[in-house]
## 1
Amino acid sequence: MQHSKYRILGLVGQGQFGRVFCASVRETPAKDSRLTSQLVALKELSHQKAPTSEFLRELWFLITLQHPNIVTCRALEHTATGRYLVMDYCEGGTLRNLLKQDRPLRLLEGLQLVMEVLAGLDYAHRRGVVHCDIKPENILLTLGSKGWSPRLSDFGIARRLPEIGTTRLHQELSPDATVGSPAYMAPERFYGLYSPMSDIYAVGILLFELLMGYRPFGGTPGDLRWAHLNQRLQLPDAIPEPLQAIVKKSLEKLPARRFASASQMGQALRLVMYDPAVRKLGDCIIPWEHPTTSRAKNLKSETESLAQVEEQEASQPTINLVRTMRYAVTQPKPVILSAPLTALIATEKYLYAAVDKDVKVWCQPQTHLVTEEMPRTISMPEIVRGILPTADGCCVLTPLKIYWVNDRSWEPQCLLDMGLRQGTDAFRATVDSDGRWLTVAVPGELRFYALGANSTEADLEKALKPIATVPLPEHYLPELMFLDRRHVLAIWPDNEPKNPQTIFRVYTRRGTAVGSVRLSATVGQMVLTPEPYTLLGIPQSGKAAVLLMKLWPLKVARIPLESLPVSACVANWGWVLADVGGQILVLNNQGVQVGNFSSPAAPRAIAAWGKTGLVIAVNTESESHLHFLDVDVEETNSRSNLNG
């Protein structure tokens, strides 16, 4: 998009009328202007798929409806290749994306999400707008400190009521009067009738699906029409009685028997959230387990309609390969170190553990996780506060200096004296995997260094000079990591109560700013995953969960957990999380739990080492214990939970 104010970062979706892109906002329309951290969604509206009348209708609705739970249209963008609606970007994708995850919500979180959908609908209804196509694909998600927040989108087939705020049924005899999603359409919609209660019916289907993982009615479009008009609603016993009453009322066949307004249904949900039977299950992760026979019946009807109903394709159950795990502690007694641990890092070749002024180094064994050989000890001049591994050694961080340690001699040599005052938060640093590029954050600036032969030949007689510096306006230092051999990521988590956020900025290894994104949640520990530009992070507030964050373009998946993890690492057999009680949880690369076991309590750090190794560090007041485990992973073709 030449001379545009927006730079497209990637394709994030395919809408009914065209593609949807994530884009970053430029300071000016110039091609080489700096990118801001502000992200927008560009919704393409092709002339073939979206006639001018449809285009203007959706534009009018989006401009008219200004509400936190409705996507905002910011501008129009016309280029030589097309026309776009510039809208708020929602990094969580659609609610359908969330439902395709394995049990993605807690009960109270799901009810809160539906209440916010109803708040947006109530606002639209009071302004005389009926959405007419409420479904998970048209609900976008943004992440906040308390979890997901939904935003209604896609008003392409919305209808305006002749009388503002009316609850009466209205009929439209145009050819597209019954256009919509049959799986979520109220009975009267099949006859071209619509009203606010039609949207309430669709929310009832959505609520059932959130709770159970499948919809109450399935089949071909003809089957769905008959079911909505005639089939009796069957509610599983898993749904608490107070919630059953709300689902039943929202899915009444006759509009007059449903909730009179979206606000009335929202108020009913708000009250039921305080019901003892519901609060008791509030932290239970949904969808609930359900009988195999009922699910199999529903799966069959959904499968039959795949070729005919587009939205049911997104509802197809996915089969995840679940790997059963056996583990054995190959060394019954832990390795005891003489001081509390300050760093634990593993590479393909070595395991590094820092205690006081020493760095312990274990070489990767060929056949067993731990050999009988004692670790090599590297004595440093100062207390060690961090280790940055490379292919042929490591950089060792002390409070004021960076040392280089080569695996040919293991003799530490001073690589860089920061020249700063004594302080525990004096600087941050990261080095690339080849040990040729170094980035350091000090108060006020980022410094970029080309190590070249310095790190490999230990030719450190000349003072190391930065090849570039970048000013940092923030008053606190970012965490740093190399995303690959060319790009550095700087991370600023801010846990300010009223506006928690995490800022991610990407630079080249020579200091050129590439772009930045902002997440409306505070993320603590982050580890890089094998997926390019993708991080696994532990949020610092809210319910227990981990976040899977793809940076370019920004996409976030939130995985709820039973307990809050305090440490994480990425192994070639999954993501490994440890909580304060010593429970180890293993997730596969899709975020599905594949194993768990107990370890010593309160782990200080964990590290995956080799193909099956796991090292767990536990600190006491005067020493640290390293527990070496060998995790035997056996793959089976068992199913995970099936979600519609």
## 2
Amino acid sequence: MSSSPHTAWPPATEGRLEEVLSGLFAEVLDLPRVGADEDFFDLDGDSLSAMRLISRVRAVLGLELNIRTMFTAPTVRGVARALAEAAAEPATAPRPRTGPQRGVRPERVPLSFTQQGLWYLSLLQGPSPTYNMPLTVRLTGRVDTAALEAALGDLVQRHESLRTVYPEDLGVPYQQVLAPQAARPALLRVSCDRSDLDAAVADAAQDVIDIMTEAPLRTWLFTAQDDPAEHVLLLLLHHIAADGWSLRPLMRDLNRAYLARLEGAAPDWEPLPVQYADYALWQRDALGEESDPASRLSQQVAYWRRALDGLPEQVELPADRPRPAVASHHGAAVEVVVDRTVHERLAQLAQARGATLFMVLQAALALVLTRSGAGEDVPIGTPVAGRADESLDGLIGFFVNMLVLRTDTSGNPTFGELLERVRTADLEAYAHQDVPFDRLVEALNPKRSAAHHPLFQVALGFGGRGSAALEAAGLRGTAGLAPTPVAKFDLGLYLDEVQGADGSPEGIAGVLEYATDRFDRATAEGLAADLVRLLALVSEHPDAPVGTEG
């Protein structure tokens, strides 16, 4: 188990190392086997699955695999050779060989760094729905409400993050885990016309949760009066307790608990290896202190100081209105759809250039912004899962971190050249992704403003927003995060791949979220259309100049 100490793989067993790596490649890619010379990315791997492989290598072999290696030597044989060479040279700031562990906790458990930043934002803004996460499950069939309510109680008992409040002591916040019964959510039942379901759900999703005094989960079951077999289950979470990657463990555990409760029993599941509070304590030990030049935190902050030196305070976007003194975070979204043919060509382009589809999208977004007047130094924020140890994979919690990807569009490059710049910069950024964003802001100390987000004002998210299913005793449903009238950034492009049953490209779909303080819908629609047109163009002509000059 990953929470146990690891021993570095003996160099004398490199043949066996390839064998074990082949199994790990296959596990992460969900394939029966992977040959020694098969390319990870040719087998539909991406940066997210590469990070999962890195976690599995660390857990099983006790060795550190660099994300750059996954792109420069993306085969079992190449990774084995790189690991053997790295094992011969001690790392300058090795990650601790133990992951989070259960143990004696201090009287005041600190927040994780990501939670801490969000807590202070909530304190500054006051209770608001800005950081709500409305998870909706559209259900068809008969719902056993008693079993469902009991299953929700089981879920809260299993995951401490769902029953934690965040009070403060002399201005310092801490985690207070409530007893399961004290935090057991009441399932509020609402009956309305089918035509009113969506509006009723949207209204409930704007409920305000005070994280200092209230458990971060509320639940509703909406049922159509004219069709009692049609329902929407709303699980309203505060972001301080969960992230987008929490969707699958949440639905998996709720499914299992509901099935058990239908049988009149409590769910019989393996205990979680750790809880979120254990992670928060471990995170601080793993990063060390910035004052220690040998610590992981110090070395990674030093990288970001170099990488973001001279970064513009804010990008000039084609806004319809100047910034208000204080951002309201009110937002809306327009649809973005890339067709199957373009998707297929973009995937082939990424593969041919040793990049990922995310990198292609980032390059295209930066180019659209440059053409819209944002300049040639375009910082884009992107979420990364932040689950640095496999013991965290099954947890509901707020692990996600934000990276600043600086994109240089200068010099009228071809799209292929721009993609290579993006690839190079992104790999360095991914290799230094452990610094929590809020600690990075503290270290770099940019000019602060309530009018805009620090370091970047445009975000790009790709993948990790998929759906999960609930199916039991004739009840079927699909879960996903519902859209909200909120914009955390000036612009946020959030896309997912649509794939066939065999993994073939079927299109790219998502939304461009925009701050209504600054943009009209027509402007957002124009930017989305520009992006779709550009992606179609560069998918056919990647070696033509992209026309950033003039």
## 3
Amino acid sequence: MARSRLLVRLFAIFHLLIDKVLYVILKRYWGPSKQRCPALQRKRMIVTYSAVELARMIRQRDVSCYEVVSAFIDRLNEVNPLINAVLDGPFVDALDEARRIDEQLQQGLIDETELAAKPFLGVPFTTKDSTAVKDRLHTLGILARRTVRSNNDAECVRLMKEAGGIIIATTSIPEINRWQETRNNIIGQTNNPYDNRRTVGGSSGGEGALLAACATAIGLGTDIGGSIRMPAFYCGVYGHKPTTGVVNTRGCSLRTGREPSTMVVAGPMTRYATDLLPAMKVLVGPQTAAALRLNEPTDIRKLRYFFIDESGDIKCSAVQPQLKQAMNRVVQHFATNIVPETGVRRVKLIGTDHTTNMWRYWMTQEPANFATLLGNGKPVNPLLELVKKLTGRSDFTMASVYSLMDTLLPQEREDIMRELTRRCDQELTELLGDDGVLFYHSTTHTAPYHYAAFVNVYNFSYWCLFNVLHVPATQVPLGLDADGLPLGIQVVASRNRDRHCLAVAEEIERVFNGHIPPFIVE
């Protein structure tokens, strides 16, 4: 036992040294100076408003829908040269739709019943390229599909349009959504609005970047291993991974929405916690919203609170002190001001030290095959593709080739991983019950430099644990660190208790100020 502890400690020290060397190398490679998001002109402050507020202003005709959509498109064109987040758009016909809405409102052609059914009437939104939008590019980030357009809207896009939303662009992703950075060979690399040398994460990285830069009001993401929450964290915005199955995934990455077993979910990304609940009501539909009790208020003072301060996975980097301090601030607030009688209890959860092993196993159980999707229907041979990449003849990024090589490594033991998942799931379910909330770190580091993920492969495990367990998790921003990069925390609940996550996220936003823009106003 003593020898085991010594080996773990030595490995942790080695990992810390690797992290420091990697930081120095990449900082020198990318240069000492950073570029932040372009300043926002004071006359365009409308793009900083919440989606709910924009919808209210449009309904009451305090501002025209055309003015709102035009402002967001102008902002998108202004910031995209730096962040490189847009794959298709902006869509000029969005302005025509905005004009029609203004005319209908002016002529009284939309009654109160219809307005109630369209909570986001006139509000601009975007979605990642892998989520289908009728007549728009649907590339999945691969060159073989660079001219492919979708024939139909994905279900989540359809629902947002039905709710009155106006889509203004689709955003960039890593190839087939399978990497921790947003980069593909169609438009290249997407950059973080807080520091263009840093990653936005993946796979909903374009959504995170546009939201942070105030170039969209609502983003639609998907999440199989952190793909909503990772970009939300790195870009300082909110992202909710719903309970698995409550949002129909038809049209997301070529899915039918009827897959019997999957970790994939679709969910909202926003700049304001208060926009998450209305967006979730739209995405799940009225029947599921009622089943999830999304229309009922949550009394956060009647919930029980827990936190985990380390996953224990030695393959991960150590959690940075500033992220620990951020969690401590949240824990202290809830322990002191929300539930002083019971406090917030530190706990451990079986299996967190093998999160990536569990996730890796469950990825092999997904109905979609990465190698076949990457080859646009024809499986890609990992070794052949590696040779092609090394000789400059591959159509794919190194990240995709890297991911392909994982299939050649020994696979996880099915019996061990299924039993470990069962025990982890059972323990979390019994811990949280109907009224429990868990605070969990987002990851180990604030937004790393581009390419760091090739070395720190496993740091995403803090997100993917909750895909394995199929539970809801909300990514919540918590200000900026000393380098001006976003901090954050995850709020987790048991299955179908999404409302608890969202209510707690709103309380954290109220106390800790939420999203801090990566630009100045002039």
